[in-house]
Amino acid sequence: MCAAFTQTILIPIQGELPQLLNTSASNTAWVITITLLVAAICTPISGKLGDMYGKRRVALILLAVLMLGSAVAALSPTVLPLIIGRGLQGVGMGVIPLGIAILRDTLPADRLGSAIALVSATLGVGGALGLPVSALVSEHFDWHVLFWVAAGLGATAFALMASFVPESALRVGGRVDKAGIAGLAVGLSGVLLAISRGNDWGWTSTRTLGFLVGGTVVLLAWGWLELRRREPLVDLRVSARGPVLLTNLASIAMGFALFSSQIAFPQLLELPSAAGGLGMPLLQASLFLMPAGLAMLVMSPVAGRLERRWGPKPLLIAGAAIMGSGYVVALLSELRAGHILVINILIGIGIGLGYAAMPTLIMRAVPASETGAANGLNTLMRSLGTATAAAVIAAVLTRSTVQVGGMPVPSTDGFHAAFLFGLGAAALCTVIAVFIPRSPLR
């Protein structure tokens, strides 16, 4: 929940950052981008280090780095230290796959599904609480207070984990794959920079294409190297197994479907009525979106029972289908406040079921010694889906605009296109999930 909160705390003031920091919008864009890049790189690395040296130990280190980053950001008077602090906060995102992996090491099998569902639901709760809390703090206090709140949450999580979470005796040892870490970091940075900054740089610009092609080439070379190492950072042979590969592909599609709504609906709620929006202030719009995260939390015990009865695969299929039904409602109805509330609850239920199923599908297909690394890679796949959705939906809404008061704002056609993309991603996730092979419970 703490990690998800840190991802959303700057959304209410993102447009005001250039004035607050006395710099250009292109510089302040890095405040958002750097967290995405660092989190994507660190999640599979931290998962592997947790398998090697102890998941609880590595998770505590990551939470300490998150607190440090929050403090640096809270004390930053200019954009550069804020970017550094946000990068350190991104390191802390690696605690998510470690937390899920710890559950496998410490809980009995019949309780594992419910626990994974509950922990996965806190990602939605953190995001759902982050928006209204951030809007409230931004309206009444200095914006730096947001990072002190994040630091306090990190300290709470650190104290609770140090006090109550047992250390797993399961460790694989071995050497750190430094070449694998470097290759993954460089390759992912290139691809994610091209995706996240393509709208600003231009999708056909030399810089965007250079980062995209260069990152892809590095990742291909990294994969070739990893297949030939005795102790790779990511065991690609395990990742190529049918259940793991298809679950990761479904994760990309589900991440895209989730973020399509998270990009489109806040803008639709806040747009003036003359542009087809609902004209809500930021705090009211945030409260309207919060039930999606709460629906994830409410669904967690249900998801656990369904997983024990039917297994994780039907759970993922149902979750993706429910998300798709939400987008169908968005496309076929006149979007009023009540409709948007229902649609977001449907999407929250779908994400709650899907996010509960995916780690279980992964862990059923990999040995216990690979739990952290495999969950880290799955978290990376979700991040890749959300990053791609953020770029694609932003491009769609930017290119389909109308003039209101002399300013371009997203049009109704743009929002419909965004919902079509979300529906397509949910449908693709459903189809992929149907073909995931069943794995015996390890």
Automatic annotation (TrEMBL):
- PROSITE patterns (UniProt xref): MFS
Q: Which InterPro entries does its entry note?
A: MFS, MFS_dom, MFS_trans_sf
Record-level Gene Ontology MF annotations: transmembrane transporter activity
Key words, A-Z: Membrane, Transmembrane, Transmembrane helix, Transport
| Extent of the signal sequence | none
Report the Pfam families cross-referenced here: MFS_1 (PF07690)
Residues that span the membrane, as ranges: 28-46, 58-77, 83-103, 115-137, 143-164, 176-196, 208-225, 245-265, 285-303, 315-333, 339-358, 379-397, 417-436
**Localization per Swiss-Prot or TrEMBL:** Cell membrane
Name the membrane topology term: Multi-pass membrane protein
Q: What is this protein called?
A: MFS transporter permease
Q: Name the species this protein comes from.
A: Mycobacterium adipatum
